[in-house]
Every structure is written in structure tokens, then in C-alpha cells.
Amino acid sequence: TQFPAKTPIKQPPYLNSISGKNFENTESSRVKMIDTNCIGCGQCVTACTTGAVQPASRMDEIQRAKQQGKLLVAVVAPATRVGLSEMMGMPCGASCETQLVESLKKIGFDYVFDNQWAADACTIEDAKEVIKAKDKHPVFTSCCPAWINLVETRYPEVIPMVSTAKSPTGMVCAVIKRFFAKEINKQPSDLFVVGVMPCTAKKFEAARDQLKFNGEPECNISITTREVAELFYAQNLKFSVEREAENRQRGLGKFDEPFAQSSGAAYIFGRTGGVAESVGRFVASQSKKVSKVTSKMIWELPDKSQSIILREFTADEVNYKAVVCHGGCAVDELMKIYKAGMLEVDCVEVMMCPQGCQNGGGQPKLNKKSLILERVKGLNLHDYDNEIKNCIQNEQMLDYIQQHMPKAHDIHEALHTYYQNRK
Question: PANTHER family per the record (predicted)?
Fold first, then answer.
């Protein structure tokens, strides 16, 4: 079915006050963000031409934690490495991965881990849920915290169908606090874990009660790509394409073990369609005969910035369908399709930001929207260059989970979460 493309008058974030008292939005009676349906996606920050809208910053807590003698641990998302490069003078879409790791160490971080390690773990957990729910109901992905905020506050009826797998950030931070701390003879409270993310909604995710261990956040704070660039500016750090190539050739600027290895599929978590494709690769790896993937446009904005795409393939005579949806307008249309009972698929990937995480609210602003696709190309190039294409080939991740989480219950406790109706 072809659905007409149209732009609704309102789309996330919903700027109207829940109380409806917009007329009282004065200096003496301000409508606060907590009283709105804001989902924290940060697209208002990206859209604001004057820079008047900014996410709340907690960067001062990093220095405070260091002064208190805590070990600083950074967790780096895939999209951050192709966003930060622009702010550091490199071409759009170029990766600054090794220089990012080096620079975080220079400003005081003791460990720098790759969030993509957990993206591979997330793929496996999502795939398990998709296979379990096959022919029963669609499984919605849970990687996007802005989407989770929207589900809990506006579409709570969808909660039973959302994957209980934590986001990659949620997974790796849980593992760091629960297992890595013991390995280095530290208490979880001795570690201050900082997510280096392209996303403003990750700030909300880090504060979720469901993502705490022994009463303390598993991810202490989350900072954006723009915020980490400010830290580097303050230290007068410089990046270049030549330096990146030299580091790779000499094997410098690598992520710290044991959370360093990842598949090419983990890189594409940073763009729209990446999670669904990674799950598809896992399903295909468990099958003997796999067909080619077909794609069909279901809905698209006139400027092609947001869309809903149906992707389909067959594995061992079993047909799998996935819907890939990105952008607030697209999500609004997606939920109309769902409520009409026409969403007959196995997996639904949802990203609130157009084109996915690489265009998140914490990423640098682009002068031309067309440059967004350059970041996509950068992530795809990493995927192409990686010898490991599938999460199931990430033996380092598989061995670590087997060692520390040998039982299904252990995996569920550390790598899964729950949601609540906040409507």
C-alpha cells in the first residue's frame, strides 16, 4: 500500500504545554520543558539558526570526578567519530576515530571503549526477540532513547512490542560497572562513565532509573559530539586526515580492551537502517539459503529527508520483513499505519532523527543538508573496510559474554531493561 506523503502541522518534539497554558508563557510564568511533550531528540538545537537552544551540559562533573580520584571511562558511539571530524577541521564524512581516542586520553580519560562492541551484542539480543515474535507481532527497536521517550509518553500501547534489549550504550555501561570494575579491582562507584554521543536524548537515557546498578547510574553522564569538541578546543588539540592515516598505519589510537573489537555492522548503527540490516545479517548468518534484500518506499517527505521503507528477504524459505523509519514526521505516519492494523512486519527500526544518529541533536550543524549523506558514506566505508561483517564473528564479544554471563538469566539482568507508561 502506498501512503500519501504529507507534513503534519505538529511533529516531535511537541512544543505545546501539556497543561495547555501557552498563554502564560511569560518571564514570571514560564512553561518548563518538563511540562511539555518534549522527547529530547535535540532537533530543535539543530534547527535553531541563532544557537539560542542548547542542551543542558554537565561537563563540569568530569573534572570533579577526576579530582575525586575516580577513573574516567569514555564510551564512544559510531556516529560521533564521523561528526567530530567536521568540528576538528576534517572533511565531512571523514573518520577521526584514532585521534578521538588519543585526545580523550590526553584530556584525562583512563579508558576509552568502543560502543560498537555492544552494538554487536545488541544485534544478537534484538534478533532473538524478532525470531521469538515471528508471525505474532512486530518488534520495535529500542536503540533510540528519543523514540523510547515518545513510546512511554504518547504510545504506551506499543511498550509490549518494544525490544527489551538495552541500547548499545546501556549494554556496555552495564557491563563496565558490573564486570569490568571487578576485573581491575575497583568498585562500580570508583568509575565515572561518560557516553560520548551524537545524541541529546542520551542525557535522558543516562538518568533512567531502569539503567542503574546498586542505586548508581551505569552511565554517569552523556555528553554530545559538540561538547567533546569544546573540551578539545580548550586544550588546543588539532586533527587532520594525514594524522588519522598515520595513526592507522602505525596502530595508534586504538580502543582499550576488552571493549575494542566490533563488526562492520556495528558501524552502521550510526545511520538509519543500520540496526535492521545488522539484525538481518545475523539471521542470514544462521541460515543456509538467503535471498537478496528487496526495498520498497512506503512513505517519504517531498524533500526526501524522512521516510518509511519496507525491506524484505527470505532465509531458508522463511520470509522476513522489516520497516525502517526515521524522522518525526515519518514516525507519526508509522504510528498511523500501526493503529490501522497494517504494520504486518517482523522488525521495525525507529530513529527519531532524520537519517539516524549521525544527524543527531548533538552533532555539528551542517550548512547544507546534502552533506548529511557524506556522514552516511563514512560509516558505510568503515563497514566495507572491516574484515568482520557480522556480529556473530565478533569472538571477543562472544567470549566475554560467555565468561561473565553464561546463563540466559545473567544476560537478561545485565543487557535487558523495561519500560513504563508515562502518558
Answer: NITRATE, FORMATE, IRON DEHYDROGENASE
CATH number at residue 103: 3.40.50.1780
Q: Measure the CA angle with vertex 337, ends 336 and 340; round to 5°.
A: 85
Report whether pLDDT(113) > 80. yes
Burial of 296 (0-12, 13-18, 19+ CB in 10 A): exposed
Q: Which of 240, 268, 224 is CA-nearest to residue 122?
A: 268
- Asked if the structure places residue 312 within a domain, the reply is yes
For residue 29, tell me if it sits in a domain. no
* Pairing label, strands 307-315, 216-217: unpaired
Distance between alpha carbon 399 and the CA centroid of its chain, in Å? 24
First-last CA distance in the chain = 31
Instruction: Write out pLDDT tens, residues 173-205.
Output: 999 999 999 999 999 999 999 999 999 999 999
Please tell me the pTM assigned to this model. Answer: 0.91
Q: How many domains does the chain have?
A: 1
Mean pLDDT lowest for which of 11-20, 214-223, 241-250? 11-20
Residue 33 CA to chain centroid, in angstroms? Answer: 23
For residue 306, the enclosing domain spans: 42-154+164-358+370-415
On whether residue 234 sits in a domain, the answer given is yes
Q: Using 50, 70 and 90 to split pLDDT, how confident is the model at 262?
A: very high
Domain assignment of residue 135, yes or no:
yes
Torsion on CA atoms 115, 117, 123, 128, rounded to nearest 10: -120
The owner of cell 585526545 is 103
* Distance in angstroms (rounded) separating the CA atoms of residues 128 and 116: 19
